[in-house]
Fold this sequence. Notes:
- The structure is a single chain.
- This protein has two domains: 18-92, Arc Repressor Mutant, subunit A, CATH 1.10.10; 97-255, Chorismate lyase-like (Chorismate lyase), CATH 3.40.1410.10.
- 26% of the residues lie in helices and 32% in strands.
- The protein has eight helices and ten strands.
- It has helices at 29-42, 55-62, 66-78, 107-111, 132-138, 169-175, 185-191, 211-217; strands at residues 82-85, 89-92, 97-100, 118-129, 145-155, 158-167, 197-208, 224-234, 239-248, 252-255.
- β8 and β9 (239-248) form a beta hairpin.
Amino acid sequence: MTSRTNPSPARRGRPARADDALPEGAQPLHARLRDRLRAEILEGRLRPHDQLPSESELTERYSMSRITVRQALAALHAEGLIVKVQGKGSFVSQPRVSQELNRLRGLGESLAGEGHEVHARVLKLDDVPAPPAAAARLRVEPGSMVTELLSLRYVDREPLSLNRLYIAADVGAKVRRAGVAHRDILSIYETDLQLTIGRAEVMISAAVADKQQRKYLGLAEHAPVLQVDRVVYSADDRPLHVETSCYRSDAFSYRLTLER
Length: 260
């Protein structure tokens, strides 16, 4: 988690002013502080990744007990508006993106119509020898040439996920000629390559961000990520690519409906 220093009424170290006084009302003091900080976040005066004043600073600024401050911060944390980083303090959360997990769709397709801007930065697109695990899932010999696509995906200009795909060689050669920065790979398969997608095997797990993921996603050491491993198959059951995507756990979630 990185910290930015943007001007805001709650900026660390700013001297107290008369307008720091919390509004009078029937609400408990912790609820009034919660509402003040929530308004600063939702109105953009405190931006994603900005650090909130410390508990002691809030205690002094608003003349309240530390327990009251902790109640207000706990409420904001429960709402998902802030995250707590051990030993560093509280930070404004990255806005969370949620994707329905009820059919096989790319992220851009899933978020279409929700007002989000989705694009990718291609970090690597090249032919490489297939690692053993990827080769097995693609049903090719280890060391066979495949296309590796490494991309950093952004939503609303904020980094969301780091994605590594190993694509079957003949398919990858065609993908390399398509523009992948603003399009889902599934859309490229169907539109440019005239392939029919059949199914995908998906495994979702929790992981700790590695050095590369921390670098591109702006995460602190030991930060958690949501790891999604996927194999996509054509309608005739041919594996097209093996994918591992690691999402910021504070910014992304899946939604699904289960019926009994």
